[in-house]
Amino acid sequence: MHRIVHAHRALEQHQRAILSTLESYRPPRCPHCGVASLWGHGSYDRKADRSAAGALNPVLVPRFRCTACCRTCSRLPLCFCPRRWYGWALQQLVLSLCMSGMSLRRIAA
Questions:
Q1: In the chain, how many domains are there?
Q2: Domain annotation covers residue 88
Q3: Is 55 a member of any domain?
Q4: In this structure, is residue 102 part of a structural domain?
Q5: What is the three-state SS of the chain?
């Protein structure tokens, strides 16, 4: 199972979906044991708006709990990077500059 929901590409779409169609985030099966019995298990906040104002922060990320193995999982929209602070575009830029031979010190500056 993929951790990312591909239907929501922008933060605004994600926030509308959380309020109106939360079921679109529910995974069909548990990613750990494969049983198809996941329940809503609340949500957690994440800072995902990288704009200067950060007006959309905090952003809710839904969590689900498996009734069989009791483990939880969360689903992210496409605009979030799992386990990363920086967005996809900036990560791609830094990686391409590294591959072109530029030093990390110069990239950071």
A1: 1
A2: no
A3: yes
A4: no
A5: CCCEECCCCCHHHHHHHHHHCHHHHCCCCCCCCCCCCEEEEEEEEECCCCCCCCCCCCEEEEEEEECCCCCEEECEECCCCCCCCCCHHHHHHHHHHHHCCCCHHHHHC
What does pTM read for this prediction? Answer: 0.67
Domain that holds residue 17: 4-80
Would you state the torsion angle of the CA atoms of residues 105, 106, 107, 109, taken in this order, to the nearest 10 degrees?
90
Does 73 reside within a domain? yes
Q: Which residue in this structure is represented by tokens 């391409």?
A: 96
The CA radius of gyration of the chain, in Å to the nearest whole number, is 17
pLDDT tens, position by position, for the chain (109 residues)? 467 776 767 777 888 888 888 888 888 899 899 998 899 998 888 777 666 666 777 888 889 999 999 999 988 887 777 666 676 777 789 899 999 999 989 988 8
